[in-house]
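Aim 2 progress update. The chain analyzed this quarter is reproduced below.
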Amino acid sequence: MPKKSKYIYLLLILLILFFSLVRFVNLDADRPLPVFATVIDEGYKTQNAKYAVLYNSWFDEDINGGLYLSPLSVITVYLSYKILGVSLHSTRVPSAIFGILSVLYLYIIIERENKKVALLSS
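Predicted structure tokens:
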């Protein structure tokens, strides 16, 4: 492996670590009240996971009908609730992790063409 390539990988690792820390700071912070759509959507999509952990039932028929709405999201939030407990922080952890993984995936895809462009784009 050339010396220049090692520096690019080291820089990529440092950038991912730095932005991972930034992403996880204040993960449980509440949004201001006028932002209704994101708060409602976030709660609506995690309702099934919360019911599965707290009441051993995947469905809350009063709010939504089941796992047909973003099943992967519901399952990852469910696992987060099982490990970290039910909280706003544990609701947002899977999204933060997948956001970090998407940056790494973007780098891997673009690296085939140009490593410098891949580093800048990720």
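The chain has a mean pLDDT of 80. The chain has five helices and no strands. These observations will guide the mutagenesis experiments scheduled for the next reporting period.
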